[in-house]
C-alpha cells in the first residue's frame, strides 16, 4: 500500500506507520475500515466497470471477491462465512458449497458491473449472500424434511431482509449482494437436493415392482427451472455487460435497490 508515499497530507496520518512502515493503513478519514487506498485496491484487482469492459480485464469479476476494503470488512465477512458457510459445508460438502460460493461471487460482480460504473467494488459479500440464497432454496426444495418449517423460514427471511436493508446505506454495493443472492438461490435448487425417500433393497422387492425415485417430482421441476434461469440469466447479463450497456437504462428505479438518500447522507454511483 505504501501509505506514507501516497497519502494526502490533508487527510491525516497513516494508521500504524511507525510499526508497519509502508504496510501501514490509510488515514481513517480516507478509509475507516483499516485498509489500503482505492489506488492499491485497483492495482490488486478491484472491480471497476471501465477496466472490465473497455480494458478487457474481465478477470476482475473474480479477483474482487478475494479483496477487502480493510480489516473490519475482512473480519465481518469471515465471521459471516463461518456462521453461514460452515454448517452448509458440513451438510453438503465443500465441492457443492464451494461451487455456490464462487459462482455467486461471480454473479454478484456481474450485476454490480451492470449498474455501478464510477466506483470500485471489493469483497466477498456477493458470495456470502449466495450462501444465504442457497440456504433459502435448500429449505424450499427439502421442505418436507424440516420439522419447524414456518419458524425456520421466517428466521431466514428476517436475516436476508436485514442484510439487504443494510446494503441501502452509502458505500455498500447492494447490487453485488442481490446478484449473489439470486445466483445462490438458483444454484441451491440445483445442487442442494436431498433424498426424500429411502430406497428399498432391490433384492427384497416383490416381482414386477419398480424402484421409487429418491427425489420428489417438485424437486426435479424446481431444479430444471432454476438451471434454465441460471444459464439464461448469466448469458444475458454477460452479453449486456461486455456490450457496454448500462443496467440503469433498462431499470430506472433499480438505483433505489443500492442506496436510499436521507437527510444524513447522499447516494453517489
Automatic annotation (TrEMBL):
Q: What is its EC number?
A: 3.4.21.105
Keywords, alphabetical: Hydrolase, Membrane, Protease, Serine protease, Transmembrane, Transmembrane helix
Q: How does it sit in the membrane?
A: Multi-pass membrane protein
Could you list the residue ranges that cross the membrane?
A: 65-88, 100-120, 126-145, 152-169, 175-193, 220-242
- Gene3D superfamilies, alphabetically? Rhomboid-like (1.20.1540.10)
Any one cellular-component term (Gene Ontology):
membrane
- What the protein does? Serine protease involved in intramembrane proteolysis.
Q: PANTHER family per the record? A: RHOMBOID-LIKE PROTEIN 3, RHOMBOID-RELATED
**Under which name does UniProt file this protein?**
RHOMBOID-like protein
Which species does this protein come from? Alisma plantago-aquatica (Common water-plantain)
Amino acid at each position: 500500500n505504501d501509505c506514507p508515499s501516497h497519502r494526502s497530507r490533508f487527510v491525516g496520518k497513516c494508521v500504524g506507520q511507525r510499526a508497519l512502515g509502508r504496510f501501514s493503513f490509510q488515514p481513517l478519514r480516507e478509509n475507516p475500515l483499516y485498509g489500503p487506498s482505492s489506488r492499491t485496491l485497483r492495482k490488486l484487482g478491484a472491480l471497476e466497470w471501465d477496466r472490465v469492459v473497455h480494458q478487457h480485464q474481465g478477470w476482475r469479476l473474480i479477483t474482487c471477491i478475494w479483496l477487502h476494503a480493510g480489516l473490519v470488512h475482512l473480519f465481518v465477512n469471515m465471521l459471516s462465512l463461518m456462521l453461514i458457510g460452515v454448517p452448509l459445508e458440513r451438510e453438503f460438502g465443500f465441492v457443492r458449497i464451494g461451487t455456490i460460493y464462487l459462482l455467486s461471487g461471480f454473479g454478484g460482480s456481474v450485476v454490480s458491473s451492470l449498474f455501478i460504473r464510477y466506483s470500485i467494488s471489493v469483497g466477498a459479500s456477493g458470495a456470502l449472500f449466495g450462501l444465504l440464497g442457497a440456504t433459502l432454496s435448500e429449505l424450499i426444495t427439502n421442505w418436507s424434511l424440516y420439522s419447524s418449517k414456518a419458524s425456520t423460514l421466517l428466521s431466514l427471511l428476517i436475516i436476508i431482509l436485514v442484510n439487504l436493508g443494510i446494503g441501502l446505506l452509502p458505500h455498500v454495493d447492494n447490487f453485488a449482494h442481490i446478484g449473489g443472492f439470486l445466483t445462490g438461490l438458483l444454484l441451491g435448487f440445483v445442487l442442494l437436493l436431498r433424498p426424500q425417500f429411502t430406497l428399498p433393497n432391490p433384492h427384497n422387492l416383490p416381482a414386477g415392482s419398480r424402484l421409487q425415485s429418491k427425489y420428489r417430482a417438485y424437486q426435479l421441476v424446481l431444479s430444471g427451472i432454476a438451471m434454465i434461469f441460471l444459464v439464461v440469466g448469466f448469458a444475458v447479463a454477460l452479453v449486456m455487460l461486455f456490450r457496454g450497456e448500462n443496467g440503469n437504462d433498462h431499470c430506472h428505479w433499480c438505483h433505489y435497490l443500492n442506496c436510499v438518500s436521507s437527510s444524513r447522507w447522499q447516494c453517489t454511483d
